[in-house]
TrEMBL record, chains A, B:
SUPFAM superfamilies: alpha/beta knot (SSF75217)
CC terms in the record's Gene Ontology section: cytosol
UniProt main location, coarse: cytoplasm
Compartment annotation: Cytoplasm
InterPro entries xref list: Alpha/beta_knot_MTases, RNA_MeTrfase_TrmJ/LasT, SpoU_MeTrfase, tRNA_m1G_MTases_N
Catalytic activity reported: cytidine(32) in tRNA + S-adenosyl-L-methionine = 2'-O-methylcytidine(32) in tRNA + S-adenosyl-L-homocysteine + H(+); uridine(32) in tRNA + S-adenosyl-L-methionine = 2'-O-methyluridine(32) in tRNA + S-adenosyl-L-homocysteine + H(+)
Biological process, per Gene Ontology: tRNA nucleoside ribose methylation
MF terms in GO: RNA binding; tRNA (cytidine(32)-2'-O)-methyltransferase activity; tRNA (cytidine(32)/uridine(32)-2'-O)-methyltransferase activity
Protein name: tRNA (cytidine/uridine-2'-O-)-methyltransferase TrmJ
Keywords: Cytoplasm, Methyltransferase, S-adenosyl-L-methionine, Transferase, tRNA processing
Family: Belongs to the class IV-like SAM-binding methyltransferase superfamily. RNA methyltransferase TrmH family.
Occurrences of domain tRNA/rRNA methyltransferase SpoU type (ranges): 24-172
C-alpha cells in the first residue's frame, strides 16, 4: 500500500513504520489547522508519531498548522494523506473509532484506559484510533469499519471534547497502558532524612530557647512541648532542614538576648 | 475574602463555592485567549467549574476567549481575577503546583492520578491546582507556596505540554479519581445473546447449504465445518445476528439454485 506524503512528496510505503509500537492516529476530514497542529503536538507529548489524514477540509497543507504544532513538526512531516477511511486503515490489524454518542452498533465500547490496554496487548499488530470531524464526528459507515469503540468519561453537562483534546487523552492513556508513563523527575529528597539524634537535638534547642524566652505557662510546658514535637515530626525534616532550623533558632536567640 | 469577578461585576465572596467538590484551577499570568477559553472548555468537560486568573497578560476579558471556550461560558462567567498567587490561594486548604521540570524544591512530586487521589481524599477541603505561564511556567517563589507538585508523564523527546492540555489531563485524572468517570454509553448488546439452540441451527443451515453447493472437499468436510463453527463462535452472535445471518443464507441459497 502506498499513500501520498502529507507534505506533497513522492509516495512512500506506510508499512515501513514500526509495528506494535504506538497506535496510529487517523483524523477523518479535520477542518481546523489548529486542531491538526495541536493533535501533532499532543501525539508527540506521549510518543505517538504516525498521523494519517483522510480528506482534510479545504486542502492540505493548511496555513497555521505548523505554528499550532508548536515544534512537533516531525509528526506533521511524516503525516500521510488518504482519500477514504478504508484506505487509511488498510494495513492496520485492529482499529478503534472514537465516538461521543451511542451509534446503535453492537461493538464493544471501551474507556480510553481499557481501549489502550487492548492495543498494548496486540503486540506486533498495527493498531489505529480514528477521530471524526470537529462538528459531526465519524459517520455510522465509518464507525462500522472499526473493531470497537472508544468513548470518554466526560461530564454529561458538557460532553463536547475538542478534537486535539480527545487525541491527547488517547495518547496519555496509551502511555500509561504501555508502561511508559514515567514522570520527568521524582520527589526524591535532595538531602537524606535527619537522624532521630539530630531531630531530638533540635527539640532540645527549641525547648531550651523557649524556656529562656518565658514562652511556656509552667503548668502547660510539657503538653505544649510535645505538641511542637508533633508539628516538627510532620515536617519529615532532612539533615539539611535540621541544620537550617537550628541556625535560624541560633539567630533568633542571639537577637532576643 | 473577596475578589473581582472576571466579567467586571461587583466583588463577590468566593467562599460561597461548594467545598470538597472539584479542585479550583488557577492560571498564573496566562497570555493567550485560546488557552484560557480551552481551559474553561476542558474544565467543563470533566465537571470542574472554579477558574481563577492571576494577572492575565494584556488585560481581561480577552478577545476570542469565549469562542475558544466553545460553549463553556459558565466557567468563564464565574471566573475570578486576582492580583497575586497568594491572594488566589488564600481560602484554599491544599494547593498543587504543576511544573514540567525539577525545581530543587523538596516537595512531594505526584503523577496526575496520584495528585487527584490526594485531592479526593481531602473531602471538605478547598483544593486547587496552579498552572504557570505558557512559556516559563510558575516561578520558584510561586511553586514554594504549594503543598506539592504535579508533573506529567510526557515523552522526554517532546515534553512541552500546552496549557489547556495540562488542565485537561488534571480534569480527566480528577474525574477518574473521584469515581465520576462514567462512560456516556455502554456496549451493552441491543439484542440478547443467541441461545446455543439458535446457533446450532445456524451451523446446520450453513453446512447444509455448503454441502448442496459442493463447497467441501469430502475428506476435509468435518474439519472445515468445525473451523467455521469456531469463526461463528468468535462473533458472539446475538439473537438478532442469527436471524440476519440465516436470512442472508436463505437469500444466497435461493439465488444460487
Amino acid at each position: 500500500m502506498t499513500s501520498r506524503d502529507a507534505q506533497g512528496d513522492a509516495p512512500r510505503k506506510v508499512t515501513e513504520l514500526p509495528l506494535g509500537i504506538a497506535p496510529t492516529v487517523i483524523l477523518v476530514e479535520p477542518q481546523l489547522a489548529e486542531n491538526i497542529g495541536m493533535t501533532a503536538r499532543a501525539m508527540a507529548n506521549f510518543g505517538l508519531s504516525d498521523l494519517r489524514l483522510v480528506n482534510p477540509k479545504n486542502g492540505w497543507p493548511k496555513k497555521g498548522v505548523r505554528e499550532a504544532a508548536s515544534g512537533a513538526t516531525h509528526v506533521l512531516d511524516r503525516a500521510t494523506l488518504f482519500g477514504s477511511v478504508a484506505e487509511a486503515i488498510a494495513d492496520c490489524h485492529y482499529v478503534l473509532a472514537t465516538t461521543a454518542r451511542e451509534r446503535g452498533q453492537m461493538k464493544r465500547v471501551f474507556s480510553p484506559d481499557d481501549a489502550m490496554a487492548e492495543l498494548v496487548a496486540r503486540e506486533g499488530q498495527r493498531t489505529a484510533v480514528m477521530f471524526g470531524r470537529e462538528r459531526v464526528g465519524l459517520t455510522n459507515d465509518e464507525v462500522s469499519l472499526a473493531d470497537a469503540i472508544v468513548t470518554f468519561p466526560v461530564s454529561p453537562d458538557f460532553p463536547s471534547l475538542n478534537l486535539a483534546q480527545a487525541v491527547l487523552l488517547v495518547g496519555y492513556a496509551w502511555r500509561q497502558a504501555s508502561g511508559r508513563a514515567h514522570l520527568p523527575f521524582s520527589g526524591e529528597l535532595l538531602s537524606p532524612p535527619a537522624t532521630r539524634e539530630a531531630l531530638v537535638a533540635l527539640f532540645g534547642n527549641l525547648e531550651a530557647a523557649l524556656d529562656t524566652a518565658g514562652f511556656y505557662p509552667p503548668e502547660k510546658r510539657d503538653i505544649i512541648a510535645r505538641n511542637m514535637r508533633d508539628m516538627l515530626h510532620r515536617m519529615s525534616l532532612t539533615e539539611q532542614d535540621v541544620r537550617t532550623f537550628r541556625g535560624a533558632l541560633r539567630a533568633l536567640t542571639r537577637k532576643g538576648t
